[in-house]
Design a protein that fits this description.
Elements: H1 3-24, H2 29-60, H3 62-65, H4 71-79, H5 83-96, E1 99-100, E2 106-107, H6 112-119, H7 125-134, H8 138-141, H9 145-159, H10 164-178, E3 194-200, E4 207-213, H11 216-229, H12 241-259, E5 272-278, E6 288-291, E7 295-297, H13 299-306, E8 310-316, E9 322-325, E10 329-330, H14 334-344, E11 359-363, E12 378-382, H15 383-391, E13 395-399, E14 402-406, H16 422-426
Parallel strand pairs: 5-8
Antiparallel strand pairs: 1-2, 3-4, 5-6, 6-7, 8-9, 8-10, 11-12, 13-14
Helix pairs in contact: 2-5, 4-5, 5-7, 6-9, 7-10, 9-10, 11-12, 13-15
Length: about 425
């Protein structure tokens, strides 16, 4: 193709795209859906053309003669692509286009079935990248040539009906199934690294957890528990996935503290709060509190924790010297807790199915505001909904002997009361 012919083809393509754009401006929604389909088809054809050019330039050594150490680096520099996008084109060009040996002998594409689907426009660039990556793994390299070829054909066929993420999952499972013997045992392989670091925030509340689990069984156990407890509790649960996962981990740890009698004495009990309080503020209850590991907490968090916890008051004088350290006293006695459990049957928030063993007892009128520790001022809540009550616009009240919840106005402008059906409360 001469330079003039190339320029003419480019002008025709640009004019066609301009016509398509002009038509789309006044298109119906059905026609716009067709435009999207057309754009995807055009993108696949352009990607085919681009990777064909990359493969030819690579075979000719054009990038090397221009001083580039790799095709990926050349594409990044010449076209302004990021490394990942450039690498994707390099991988696909190497996988689906014909090659030649040093003496000029033509060779078929490395992934012939995938190449046929890509050329026909049945699959996209990302599909090809996934197939190439799956078939380049150590597990795939252990397959016999017939099994490897069959896997490539299977993945090329499945790619036309799956998105790249699903194709990656299927491909990994397929290779694992075919590679039943696995790698040769390596007695000298290093043990997996499993570590977890807890770092308390300096001068503030809380801390950070960073971990690394190379042992798949340990990681799977942690992930399985968090996944099971991190699902949205109700349709009004607007926490992000990271927030739900973080609170799920804390909830699981809290459950163990509450129920595992085999833990050491320093941990096997409900949270203990050391309440630091000035003597002249004693009548107004706690103004600040410290946890053994978590640092100082806000008044709202203190109220939530103290709803159903062991509290150890530490009275200080004006010079900061302790005057008295009281004995632990449980805020909600066990007998009263059983009565609340019998009434609520678990978390009383509508739509929540957490059982009593995963719940705490909340003072509707806060203890810091002289709220009584009696059944008409108590409600059972899971830890997530307990935090929600203390930190958001949700409120709860007892009406006709049963708990009733009022959502904030940003959820329901009318703030229509909500409660569990009576049958669920009785159960």
């Amino acid at each position: 193709m001469t330079g003039d012919a190339l320029h003419h083809a480019h002008e025709n393509l640009a004019a066609a795209l301009d016509d398509l754009a002009a038509t789309a401006r006044n298109a119906t929604d059905t026609e716009l859906l067709s435009v999207l389909t057309m754009c995807e088809g055009l993108t696949r054809r352009i990607d085919l053309l681009a990777t064909t050019a990359v493969a030819a330039l690579d075979a000719q050594g054009a990038f090397l003669t221009r001083g580039y150490r790799s095709t990926t680096r050349a594409l990044s520099d010449l076209l302004g692509w990021d490394h990942r996008h450039a690498h994707r084109h390099t991988v696909v060009a190497d996988a689906v286009h014909t090659r030649t040996t040093l003496d000029g002998t033509p060779l078929p594409a490395r992934l012939p079935a995938t190449a046929a689907s890509f050329t026909a426009g049945d699959i996209a660039l990302r599909h090809v990248e996934v197939i190439a990556r799956v078939l380049a793994t150590p597990a795939a390299s252990r397959l016999a040539p017939p099994a490897w070829s069959a896997a490539e054909q299977q993945l090329a066929a499945d790619a036309s009906r799956l998105d790249p993420t699903a194709l990656q999952t299927l491909g990994t499972a397929l290779i694992a199934l075919l590679d039943q013997d696995g790698a040769e045992p390596d007695d000298d392989s290093p043990p997996p690294v499993n570590e977890l670091r807890l770092t308390r925030h300096r001068g503030g509340a809380g801390g950070s957890l960073t971990g690394r689990f190379e042992d798949p069984a340990l990681y799977d156990a942690i992930a399985a528990v968090i996944d099971a407890k991190a699902k949205p509790l109700t349709a009004d649960d607007h926490r992000t996935a990271p927030q739900r996962q973080a609170e799920a981990l804390a909830d699981v740890c809290g459950y163990v503290l509450d129920h595992d009698d085999d833990l050491p004495d320093t941990g096997g009990r409900r949270p203990h709060i050391s309440v630091i309080i000035r003597l002249d503020d004693l009548e107004r209850r706690a103004r600040a509190a410290m946890l053994d590991f978590g640092g100082t907490i806000t008044p709202a968090a203190l109220r939530a924790l103290a709803c159903d916890a062991g509290v150890v008051p530490v009275v200080m004088n004006g010079a900061g010297q302790p005057l008295d350290v009281g004995r632990e006293k449980r805020t909600v006695p066990d007998g009263l807790r059983r009565a609340v459990t019998a009434r609520d049957g678990g978390c009383a928030h509508p739509g929540c199915d957490r059982p009593p063993s995963w719940c705490e007892v909340h003072h509707i009128q806060h203890w810091s505001r002289q709220g009584a520790t009696e059944i008409d001022n108590l409600v059972m809540l899971c830890k997530a909904h307990h935090r929600q009550i203390h930190h958001t616009g949700w409120t709860v009240r007892i009406r006709d002997g049963l708990p009733e919840f009022l959502p904030p106005r940003w959820i329901d402008p009318q703030q229509t009361p909500r409660r569990l059906p009576p049958a669920l409360l009785i159960a």
